[in-house]
Amino acid sequence: MNKIDFEFMTNCLTRDVLDILVEERDMSLSAAFDTLYNSETYEKLMNPASGLYFQSSRYILSYLDKELTQGKLG
Q: Which among 54, 11, 4 has a CA at the least distance from the CA of 36?
């Protein structure tokens, strides 16, 4: 995986998760950005070694939901 492909995939997934947070969870865009960008889930998404960038946006959202309800992912 080259850097350009990785950035494209993570940007698309980030956009999709933000869309879900805003449209389905009734978050403001600002709150959605804060929630995602300040999460351990986002850190994992941005780490190519995690492989999270190969998953769907709903799968990533499930990680974020777990983190928000149970604390850190560990």
A: 11
